[in-house]
Amino acid sequence: MTADTTAIGAAAPGTDTVWAARENARARAELTADFMPYLPASTSPFAPEGIDPSDLTWAETVAPGGYTHRVVARGTRIRFDDPTGDACAHVLVFNALEPWERLNVADTQKIPWQAYLGEGHPLLSGDGRVLATVTRDGSGHHDAFCGTSTAAWNDRKYGASVPEGPAPAGRDLFVLGAAKHGLTPRDLPPSVSFFQGARVDEQGDVHFDGSAGVGAFVELTAELPLILLVANVPHPLDPRESYTVGPLRVHAWRGSPTGPGDAAWSTSPERTRAYLNTADYWEARRP
User: Fold this and answer.
1) What one-character-per-residue DSSP string does 22-38 give?
2) Would you list the domain boundaries of the chain?
3) pLDDT tens figures, 169-200
4) Contact (CB, 8 A) for 174 and 189
5) Global model pTM greater than 0.85
């Protein structure tokens, strides 16, 4: 993490007394880092084109090997950007109203009759409801087969796996994010990932498909209030021997959930039923 100290100018005071420690801390108030949340979100230097920064509700650059988490409202649009071509956003979503309802990757592939994530693809729970929809896709390289990396996998491949080490495992980062929302390791299902794809050949073998390159993006729409957990770590099938992953940018703003007039709603009878189930659930619970 690289700090920009231009706002400070002079060296910070010492910490030999309580008062000096206070001044030291205050002198660092204007420091920024390459990887950080932007508070307020409107101060993000990377607001998506066409989005008024004042409309942003979440803005963050997630470090390579880092994680983030957030509760978002129904209808929120969440955009992930890959500025270097090496990000890999492993994502879990939970119904924030009843967090035991969570992403089900099997249904996410089965109900749309499509195993590969792309524009218009619903992310479903095991209760037949749509938690989020892939609203826009400027990448095409995603994965709903492999999940994220584990400690055992990273220890074997990189020789390290702990979150504070040089090669954090995705599941361990999910555990940290989940704990902040009262969730435990047993609450964590398999995840989907964006920006580093995987494909299945005719023999049923899964192959790494790599990245779409610099500047790829994907946008999700929250169909219910959601808890999002995001781990930015290498894809488990990435063949590179070194722990290689780039920064991930996240922005979110208010929007509208998918409705009957949207193409995703009526693409198939199965999808229509899932969106109807979601709308019915929300109408019974909304404030």
Assistant:
1) HHHHHHTTT-EESS-B-
2) 34-282
3) 999 999 999 999 999 999 999 999 999 999 99
4) no
5) yes
